[in-house]
Automatic annotation (TrEMBL):
One of its GO terms (biological process) is secondary metabolite biosynthetic process. Residues 6-169, 295-366 form the FAD-binding domain. It comes from Hermanssonia centrifuga. The keyword Ribonucleoprotein does not apply. This is FAD-binding domain-containing protein. InterPro entries: FAD-bd, FAD/NAD-bd_sf, FAD_monoxygenase. Pfam families: FAD_binding_3. The keyword Transcription regulation does not apply.
């Protein structure tokens, strides 16, 4: 059996599952996607695609489509400004990546639409909520869905997000790995014209910004060619140590809140921050959950996790989707490798785990620390000079990763194991 004969089932059609499906299908691999919802969909918000992720989308042949759907006119989010959230909005620090480090802010729905345009509708199955996975006698995996139906495949990829059903099958434990981080954020999209009319003076439509302050910060970046400003305003309760709290049963991850709640949370902050928040008419509040403690494996036999299902993390480096895309790229390259076949696929997936788990979990740790820095709890404290020290190079590890680095590492490991032969 050559890789072309391996049948892959992807559980979950979010950013990572869909990108993985497109990448594998482009390599001629048979893929089916099983999505719990009635259609592919994303929240109405922006997502930052860092240089590492931009390189992957380019290699997978979907970057131009994503940018054109997103009406992207070239705002590079790697030019991040850090500004005091307090009145006066003093400049603190500029993070400027190299010219080759292109990154983008895009509307999530536009991203998904671009991906969907590459999907053969016959590959997509909706209203298919995975509840469990079992093994058949001939070595296939069988996915069970809540409607009583089943599907089988040679490889199952769990891209079913933070509340993953596949995760428990991989880790072999019924205990939930999803924890409440103690952080919440308010999200909204603001038309640039309205922001200007509200008297906001800083130019937030050409470059991204992070407004820093004690126990709170805002991430702001333009999407849709600068016509819309994506706003995410964080509030952290540090009395809740990470990993020790879970949301009470029944408490929703996302709720609509009155605008007053957002303005009250930022009482005493500077006029541009309050002006911007005052333009969010229908804010949503997000309880930020993470996967913690770190999983000991992302793979069990022929079942592998990717994206938030494997390493749902804090949002502070805008790295979660990017880490998922790094998983995707390695999976696509390994599953479609000419020396991958049915008899060695389990070792190939094991090597995927060995390569991707340490890096994605390191990024997880760095995103947590970044939140501390932005909110005055970093190693050098809350002075502007202390912040500058802690902000220097803050994205280097995340963004500096070459698209082929993991592939080279994995292929070398497989050659050392005698699974692949050097060509
Ligand atoms: C406020 C905020 C801001 C963020 N900003 C950024 C950013 O700027 N840059 C960045 O890189 N990341 C960012 N992230 C993180 C990023 O959004 C996630 O890492 C990314 O969306 C994860 O994609 P995913 O495909 O793994 O999971 P999801 O997007 O959660 O998709 C999972 C899919 O699986 C489906 N599903 C769930 N359960 C089942 C089941 N049992 N059976 C079948 N289907 C199922 C769901 O319906 C969904 O379609 C941010 C996150 C938040 C909360």
């Amino acid at each position: 059996m050559s890789p072309i004969d391996l049948r892959v089932a992807i559980v979950g059609g979010g950013i990572c599952g869909l990108t993985c499906a497109v990448g594998l299908a482009k390599q001629g691999i048979s893929v089916q996607i099983y999505e719990a919802a009635a259609k592919f969909g994303e929240v109405g918000a922006g997502v930052g695609i860092g240089p590492n992720a931009v390189r992957i989308l380019r290699e997978l042949g979907v970057l131009d489509d994503v940018l054109s759907r997103a009406e992207d006119t070239g705002c590079n989010i790697s030019m991040f400004r850090f500004i005091s959230g307090m009145e006066g909005h003093e400049w603190i620090y500029d993070y400027t990546a190299g010219p080759e480090d292109e990154s983008r802010g895009v509307h999530r729905a536009a991203y998904l639409d671009a991906l969907v345009s590459h999907i053969d509708p016959k590959m997509a199955h909706f209203n298919k909520r995975c509840t469990s996975i079992s093994a058949s006698t001939d070595g296939h995996n069988i996915i069970h869905f809540s409607d009583g139906s089943t599907a089988d495949a040679d490889i199952i990829l769990g891209a079913d997000g933070l509340k993953s059903a596949v995760r428990g099958v991989v880790t072999g434990t019924a205990t939930s790995s999803v924890k409440f981080s103690g952080g919440i954020c308010y999200r909204g999209l603001v038309p640039t014209t309205e922001m200007r009319a509200a008297g906001v003076k800083l130019d937030l439509d050409t470059r991204p910004a992070c407004f820093v302050g004690k126990d709170k910060h805002l991430i702001v970046f333009p999407i849709r060619g600068g016509q819309i400003i994506n706003v995410v305003a964080f509030v952290t309760n540090r009395d809740v140590p990470i990993g020790e709290a879970v949301l009470p049963p029944g408490e929703a991850t996302v709720v609509s809140v009155p605008q007053k709640e957002v303005l009250d949370a930022y009482e005493g902050w500077g006029s541009d921050v309050l002006g911007l928040l005052g333009c969010i008419h229908n804010p949503t509040k997000w309880n930020i959950n993470v996967v913690y403690p770190h999983l000991e494996t992302y793979v069990n036999g022929r079942i592998a996790l990717l994206g938030d299902a494997a390493h749902g993390m804090m949002t502070h480096l805008g790295a979660g989707a990017g880490q998922g895309l790094e998983d995707v790229y390695l999976l696509v390259k390994l599953i479609s490798h000419p020396q991958t076949a049915s008899y060695n696929i389990e070792t190939v997936l094991q090597v995927y785990d060995e390569v991707r788990r340490p890096r994605s979990q390191n990024v997880w740790e760095q995103t947590l620390q970044a939140g501390d820095v932005y909110e005055g709890c970093g190693p050098h404290g809350y002075s502007f000079e202390g912040l500058r020290q802690d902000l220097t190079g803050i994205w280097d590890y995340v963004w500096g990763h070459g698209v082929e680095d993991d592939v080279r590492d994995a292929v070398r490991r497989l050659e050392n194991l005698g699974v692949y032969h050097s060509m």
